[in-house]
Amino acid sequence: MASKNPHLARLRRLCLAFPETTEKLAWGAPTFRVKGKLFVHYRNDHHGDGRIAAWCNSVAERQQDLVEADPERFFVPPYVGPSGWVGVRLDRKPDWAVVAEIVEDAYRLVAPKRVLRELDDARK
Predict the structure, then answer these.
(1) Cα separation, 102 vs 58, whole angstroms
(2) Fewer CB within 10 Å: N-end or C-end of the chain?
(3) What value, to the nearest 5°, has the Cα angle with vertex 52 and ends 59 and 4?
(4) Do 88 and 99 touch, CB atoms closer than 8 A?
């Protein structure tokens, strides 16, 4: 899937770099999954909110810490926010190293243990 959108292109590269990750169009937008489990959802102006963002699987504590530390870049997304997911603004000059960490954390929350062992072994 080629994209002329630089935010999506960069997010796609981050997500698809993880083992057994696939991209699937859902709810009118690209989503990234490992073994069928959603870990990142790309949104561009969702219901007119004016944001280009990644909604990333997370835990409530991390979501709260990020949003409190920098509410201009992080937010609680609709629908999935109550489950701890965090919204990451991609249209506000993101620190892509931080985005990569958040995406990896999201991946690790849903990836099977076998896949995580493969990832960790490959990095040794």
Answers:
(1) 8
(2) C
(3) 125
(4) yes
Q: How far apart are CA 95 and CA 73, in angstroms?
A: 10
pTM of the predicted model as reported, rounded to 2 decimal places: 0.91
Sorted by where each starts, the structural domains of the chain and their CATH numbers stand as 6-114 (3.90.1150.30)
CA 98 to each of CA 35, 46, 79, 111, 114: distance values in angstroms, whole numbers, following the listed order:
24, 23, 23, 20, 25
Give pLDDT tens digits along the chain (124 positions): 445 788 999 999 999 999 999 999 998 899 999 999 999 999 998 888 889 999 999 999 999 999 999 999 999 999 999 999 999 999 989 999 999 999 999 999 999 999 999 888 888 8
Q: Read off the tokens for 25.
A: 């169009």
Q: What would the DSSP string read from start to end of 35-93? A: TTEEEEEEEESGGG---EEEEE---HHHHHHHHHH-TTTEE--TTTGGGT-EEEESSS-
